[in-house]
Amino acid sequence: MEEIDFKNKKVLIVGLGLMGSAYAASFRNIGFETIYALDRNNEVLKKAESEKLIDKGYQNASDILPSCDLVVVCLYLHDALDFIKKNMNNFKSNSVITDIVGLKRKMVENLDGILRDDVDFIPGHPMAGREKNKEGFTSAKIFEGKNYILTPTDKNKPENLDMMRSLISKMGFGRLIETDPDTHDEKIAFTSQLCHIIAASMVDISEDSKVTQFEGGSFQDMTRIAMINSDMWAELFIANKDKLVDTLDEFTESISYFRKCIEDENFDHIKSRFDFIGKKREEMGK
């Protein structure tokens, strides 16, 4: 793959929150010619400008979109769709749009037939983030070694896909996976959405605020993600309900099996299932 020079490209980050600010920090390291940000919070934009995280912030999309070669939409699912649809006439000709939304079917299906022929939308999902919504901007270090998923469409131009692959590599991601939107949403229901529900449910069933005094690490590891972004995850759960409900049914079946074995004091069944699961997890790798 030919080396991509990003120094002559202008990029716009839409939404300068946890992920948007990490993208800005990473793009600064990569050396984009100009880094712009669009956000409704002017104080956030001014802070980002003063810290040299971005070159200039905007609150009106039409003021800056026509100048940008790459647009990274760091918004929730429906906000991301609304932004792209409403600004379709503002995007620069031959520009590339990508997103960070945690589901891909809804993005691709809702934009099909709406995108201009001279604008390339490449759906993406960086598997990185922070579990707490703290104040301040996020370091680009959250991307190091993590997975990045692309779900290219048959309309994407090869040179733009190569640009995204190069960019993802330069951002420090450890692995790039390319798949279709349906497979993405099915796997994410298991590896991400189910995990957040389990973590939240574990905290939900405890009435003891001091229970962490009795844990040796397992509870902390399993509930780290329970401090959830409720607006975003509720939206994603419902949007992926077909895949997620199937996954929850399978999980409930497994839990019910263990419950029955424990109730019946069936040591051999519990041991053999754990032995099987241990080998299965080893085969999954990292």
UniProtKB/TrEMBL annotation:
The keyword Oxidoreductase applies. Pathway: Amino-acid biosynthesis. InterPro entries: 6-PGluconate_DH-like_C_sf, NAD(P)-bd_dom_sf, PDH_C, PDH_N, Preph/Arog_dehydrog, Prephen_DH. Keywords: Oxidoreductase. GO terms for molecular function: NAD+ binding; prephenate dehydrogenase (NAD+) activity; prephenate dehydrogenase (NADP+) activity. One of its GO terms (biological process) is tyrosine biosynthetic process. The keyword Chaperone does not apply. Pfam families: PDH_C, PDH_N. Residues 9-286 form the Prephenate/arogenate dehydrogenase domain. Belongs to the prephenate/arogenate dehydrogenase family. PANTHER family: PREPHENATE DEHYDROGENASE, PREPHENATE DEHYDROGENASE [NADP(+)]. This is Prephenate dehydrogenase. It comes from Alkalibacter saccharofermentans DSM 14828.
